[in-house]
Design brief:
With about 160 residues, this protein is mostly beta strands. The protein has one helix at about 1-15; strands spanning about 25, 30-35, 40-45, 50-55, 60, 65, 85-90, 95-100, 105-110, 115-125, 130, 135-145, 150-155. The strands form five sheets. A four-stranded antiparallel beta sheet has the order 10-9-12-13, with no helix packed on it. The protein is elongated and about 90 Å long.
Amino acid sequence: MKKLLLLSALLIFGFVSAQTISKQVISPLGGNEYNNSHKLSYTVGEIIVGAMTNEEGSIQLGNGYYPSLNLEALSIESPSTKLTVKIYPNPTKEVIFVTHPDSISFKVFISDLTGKVLLQKEVGKQEPINIESYPTGTYLINVTTEDNKINSYKIIKQ
C-alpha cells in the first residue's frame, strides 16, 4: 500500500511543472544554466536589501530580488572637507613633517599597503619623522589632531 501511494504521488507531482517568476536580482556575480527542460539562475555574493514599493504604492522591504524597476541613486554628492593638516615633503627620501595651524601635537600611524603598522607615535608640530629605513614604496599615514579629527594621507618613499 505504501509503495502504491508513493508511486501515485510521484506520478502526480512528476507531471506538475514549476512556475517561474520574472524578477531581477542585484548581485555582484551570477548566471544561468540550461538543459532540455530546466533553467537554473544563481547569484554569488551579498544581495542588496532595501525598500521598494508594490503596485499599490505602499513601501515594502525587499530581499534583494526586485521586479523590473528603474532604480537610481538618490545622491552622489559628497561633502567637501577642508583638510588643514599638511604632510611634506611628498615624495620623500628621509623625513616627513606634519603641520597644522592650530594643533601642536599629533598621533601618527604609518602603515604599508597591506595594513601592517610600521610606526605609531605622538609627534610635535614640525618634528621630523624619520622614514629613511623604510623600503621604497607607498605608505599610508593617519594623523589624529588634538581635537580627535583623523585624516589619512598617502606618502611615497623614494
